[in-house]
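Possible regression after last week's pipeline update?

I re-ran a chain I had predicted before the update to compare outputs. Posting the input and the new output here so someone can diff against the archived version. Not blocking, just want to make sure nothing changed silently.
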Amino acid sequence: MATIQPRSNGLRPKEPKSLRGTEAGLADPEGNCLGSDLEPNGCANADRRTDKYGFIWGSQQSSTDPATDVPPEVLRHREAKWLEMLNDWDKWMSKRHKKLKLRCQKGIPPSLRGRAWLYLSGGKVKREQNQTRFQLDSQSGDPKWLDVIEKDLHRQFPFHEMFMARGGHGQQDLLRVLKAYTLYRPEEGYCQAQAPIAAVLLMHMPAEDAFWTLVQICEKYLPGYYSAGLEAIQLDGEILFALLKRVSPVAHRHLKKHKLDAVLYMTEWFMCAFSRTLPWASVLRVWDMFFSEGVKIIFRVGLVLLKCMLGSQEKLKACQGQYETMELLRAIEPRYMQEAFLIREVMELAVSERDIEKEHLSQLHHWKETRGELHCKSPPRMHGAQAIMAAEPHSHQDLQQKPTIVVEERTASSSPAQGGEGGGSRNSNRAHKEKKSRKSSASPTEKANANPSLDNHSYINQPELLLRDTPLQGSNQTLSSTEHDTYL
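New output (post-update):
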């Protein structure tokens, strides 16, 4: 776990120990190259192995217990259930929300995770109602933000094959999404903790979807977190510390005794939604629940980790001072972060949105008494998908799914099996000439749509294509940028 030092309007994270050595081109314990900035694709070894999440083998903590993997038949069954929910989202959100929440707690199927996050966050409605707002290339953006963003690009998951190539498709999309946010909210600009959030979203969805989901996280789930002064995160640090007194009095007394302010250990946890702290399987499960139930999941994860690491006198024997305590929290024991254990503890912890809001009012009153009014007025926090949907009027059309793949139907005249007669051959030749004529007179936009390149979504589902710069060849499929990654 790494710490984040606040600066002006953002954060500059220190690289986690597991990610250090990126610029030096160091090797892993087995002697495999782990990449260098001098190598445009991150590593000269074309046979590098990656795990199922796209990380170079060994660079990301992961569970080694096969029992944690969902059996294929169960996964297919869950995918069918999620497709049913996505096809009738309004009904499930209004009438069967408890069932939907339970399915999020079980884990969203990987093939549908990106689409589910987009729907849960309200990003789908936001995107449909703002069709012309995501103009990535029409404006240059503020140079002061672009300079900071470009410096941060290679720091985001440098051992994930989507982002390891300098100037590759992943980094290009990350730049586009973060730049678009500075154009969408120029008064807020860019905060460095937004970069890992956007990167995780891009691993699961196209750039436009990632942008609107990022907007919802910044404005609905974690409002004020990425504004100048970081007042919202400081206030939530006080809330976390107050809740810890009830969850683990031993840990609370220890932190209070050594005068460890919450912002010293929880800033990166909360602002990055644990994406730079937990093993990847745990990150995804936490995010599934976070999009469904809101910020209380982030609070619960933080409380569970603090309780596990500092919740007994036996554990406190090894950290008798402030420095030792911080070192302990920087190196959380892997067993406490493993998917099965962590998710079970988070679900069993009795901390509700009502508890958080009650403590929020108390801490806000204390803040005003001791520090005065907040400089940044954030919109009210929405506790989960149901609250967001209720607060944002939408139509059935806004939630309608669009096909991922559109395949041209073969006509009888062009079918080889039925084209033996002279008439069929003439019809086929005529159709071929008309198609060729249309192709030659097509606009640049139509040509681009007919031959999608890898900067849409193909690289999301086929990470090995990242290192290629050529468009898909010989495909009769048109990939839509509105929906994605459902190939059942």
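Follow-up from reviewer: compared with the archived run. Confidence is low (pLDDT under 50) at residues 1-46, 413-428, 433-488. Marking as no regression found.
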